[in-house]
Amino acid sequence: MNSRAGLVAAAHRSYIGSFRKLVEHSANGELHAVGPVFAFVTGLPMSLFNGSVVVERTTAAQLGEALNWLSQRGLPYQVSIAEELTSALEQVVIAHGLQQEPALYPAMVLHPIPEPPDPAPAITVVPGRDPGLASYLPESFAADPDVRVFTAWLDERPVGTSIAIRTGDVAGVYGVGTIPEARRRGVGTAISWAAVTAGRAWGCQTIALQATDMGMPVYASMGFRTVARYAMFTNAHPHRR
Q1: Cα 94–98–104 angle (5° rounding)?
Q2: pLDDT per residue over 62-106, tens digit each?
Q3: 4-106+229-235 and 113-204 share one CATH topology?
Q4: Is 115 helix (H, G, I), strand (E, B) or coil?
Q5: Under a CB-based contact definition with an 8 Å cutoff, are residues 218 and 183 in contact?
Q6: At what angle do helices 86-95 and 60-71 cross, to 10 degrees?
């Protein structure tokens, strides 16, 4: 796992595993594989929670079949393609009406896992979800033994969430969010460390995540480093094909 190839594989595995776990606990969830192309829907009407991930070499026909399956579900969805595979496949995705995001989406890993720092003053992180901040999460998902959900409190108010998801020997940090009025006060860092610590408690040696532009400086300061990137394509206004 110390090699770069091993860390890239861990990041990919965690990314796909997080969607598998959410589908497992979604009443309308479905999985679909076409060769190495992974496709899924949760039934939630948000592109983040339906789509396809391509991290291995595949054919245009295989990807096209997976996208046809997604289009038939009538849900917004997104497609993530490992950067090195994008040039061979991007026209297939665009032909299905998706638009490419302007920036690549970094996959970052933390390995080895350091001791977490204490949270900033006035911030308390507790296990469990606050319904007002994570209402989209099924109750069974939060209770899964491979999942840990955390809520951050600031000045006696729930202000942030994070999720740790175990996929084999790697844990992922997902669903990190802070309400706007509580940002820049250390909440995002504290809630991210809580998810990292959960992975460490599971015995995982590597923590993985996919970073937004807003979150990337936080994760870099924690010691995460980029090992791969995904091109992102979104179908925000679906129609059945």
Answers
A1: 90
A2: 999 999 999 999 999 999 999 999 999 999 999 999 999 999 999
A3: yes
A4: coil
A5: no
A6: 30
Is domain 4-106+229-235 given the CATH code 3.40.630 in the classification?
Answer: yes
Q: Residue 241 has what pLDDT?
A: 38
With beta carbons less than 8 A apart as the criterion, state whether 151 and 129 touch.
yes
How do beta strands 50-54 and 37-41 pair?
Answer: antiparallel
Report the CATH number of the 113-204 domain: 3.40.630.30
pLDDT (0 to 100) of residue 124? 94
The residue extents of the domains of the chain are 4-106+229-235, 113-204
Q: What is the distance between the alpha carbons of residues 235 and 54, in angstroms, rounded to a whole number?
A: 16
CA distance 233 to 21: 22
Using CA atoms, how far apart are residues 160 and 190, in angstroms rounded to an integer? 9
